[in-house]
TrEMBL record:
The active site is at 68 (proton acceptor). Its EC number is 3.6.1.66. GO terms for cellular component: cytosol. It comes from Brachymonas denitrificans DSM 15123. Belongs to the HAM1 NTPase family. GO terms for molecular function: dITP diphosphatase activity; ITP diphosphatase activity; metal ion binding; nucleotide binding; ribonucleoside triphosphate phosphatase activity; XTP diphosphatase activity. This is dITP/XTP pyrophosphatase. Pyrophosphatase that catalyzes the hydrolysis of nucleoside triphosphates to their monophosphate derivatives, with a high preference for the non-canonical purine nucleotides XTP (xanthosine triphosphate), dITP (deoxyinosine triphosphate) and ITP. Seems to function as a house-cleaning enzyme that removes non-canonical purine nucleotides from the nucleotide pool, thus preventing their incorporation into DNA/RNA and avoiding chromosomal lesions. It is an enzyme of class 3 (hydrolase). Mg(2+) binds at residue 68. GO terms for biological process: nucleotide metabolic process; purine nucleoside triphosphate catabolic process.
Length: 203
């Protein structure tokens, strides 16, 4: 079964494909099918993910899955949230993971409350007008470090410290990260939903 992934992020594709592989599902990034990026005007992960999934399905004629994810920092009232990908641009940096990390650490200088959560919301639709989208949410809570630690992963992985493991996500091997991460949690729930709904044998 082919499902369009409403993203062109290679790190996201690799993580999700590894987790979805057990279903025999092939995730195809939307760029390979000429799908344009959808606008993301909303303030919640759910609304943006749903918009992206419907857009990818409409342009491809295939079922689609979209992920909207971001960092919610307690000291910033839950921000940057849905604006995570563009966080660095608020402070004069070009868009990009490394610049996001740099900007975050600069803005958190002198802040002792460093609790934050990485949140992932996955939405799957069978068609653009699917009245019953599947929704899965994952949340990983940790502390923002004072400098990047580790060489794996992407995004905020080098500064997202998980106290019970005494590691950042960037220090974990991919299998361990997939077990613990926000996207790993939401993907496992989406696998369960897909298996029980779209892929369930006829009664």
């Amino acid at each position: 079964m082919k499902i369009v992934l409403a993203s062109n992020n290679k790190g996201k594709l690799a993580e999700l494909q590894a987790l979805f592989g057990e279903l025999g599902v092939e995730l195809v990034p939307q760029a390979e099918l000429g799908v344009p990026e959808a606008p993301e005007p909303f303030h919640t992960f759910l609304e943006n993910a749903l918009t992206k999934a419907r857009n990818a399905s409409q342009h491809s004629g295939l079922p689609a899955i979209a992920d909207d994810a971001g960092l919610c920092v307690d000291a910033f009232g839950g921000q940057p949230g849905v604006q995570t990908a563009y966080y660095a641009t608020q402070f004069g940096y070009p868009k990009g993971d490394d610049n996001n990390v740099t900007a975050l650490l600069e803005q958190m200088q002198g802040i002792t409350q460093r609790r934050a959560a990485l949140v992932s919301t996955l939405v799957a639709v069978r068609s653009p007008d699917d009245p019953e989208p599947l929704v899965a949410v994952g949340r990983a809570v940790g502390q923002i470090t004072r400098q990047p630690i580790g060489d794996h992963g992407f995004g905020f992985d080098p500064v997202m410290f998980i106290p019970e493991l005494n590691q950042t996500f960037a220090q974990m091997d991919p299998d361990e990260k997939n077990r613990r991460s926000h996207r790993g949690q939401s993907a496992r729930e989406m696998v369960r939903l897909l298996r029980n709904t779209w892929l369930a044998p006829d009664a």
